[in-house]
Amino acid sequence: MKKWEELPEEFRCQAVREYYDILSSRGASLVVKRIFDIITALIITIIVLPFMLIIAVWIKLDSRGTVFFRQRRVTAYGRVFRIFKFRTMVSDAEKIGSQVTVNADSRVTRAGKFLRKCRLDELPQLFNVLAGDMSFVGTRPEVERYVDRYTDEMRATLLMPAGITSLASIKYKDEEKLLDGADDPDQVYVNEVLPGKMEYNLEYIKRFNFFYDIKLMFMTFFAVLK
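Above: the chain sequence. Below: its structure as tokens.
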């Protein structure tokens, strides 16, 4: 972790300090977490690469557009990176709707419905993990416009790399249904959904250790099966 005085100015507040001190005391777990991310991501990438190629062909045959969806997201210490996902929506979906997805969203392609249901659209994020932009477990990375709405305490979730899965992801696995029918899904997400997810993300920091990460990965696996 960075030293307190090296953090961006907006992080150096009392609301963040509590969580910073917790993570500082668990430096060994943070090191093991990164080593685990690299080794596991390499192994999984080698195993699933043939399946990723099949998915890529399916996406191209199913609808016009690129195979991958890339978007600016925010990770540790407020750093912006580009997330990799398989494209599950029509091209330029962000220009014709909200940045969040609602239930039965007409922008989702036929292939995209299956990929989202099984969370296979997340597979390319293995490359983000290898690059150090993400971890297997951590707060899901948000777009900049949502991060700009963070409270001081919420900013503490950016003390660690963004994650592919999290306790909040498991609890809010049916998030699209919560936004279904909303007149303004973006506002509902920022004012109602995001604060609830952040409570779980902050709880994760308090409980963080390597074995808790393993537990959350298994919980994610069984949640997907359901």
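The beta strands are 68-74, 80-86, 134-137, 162-165.
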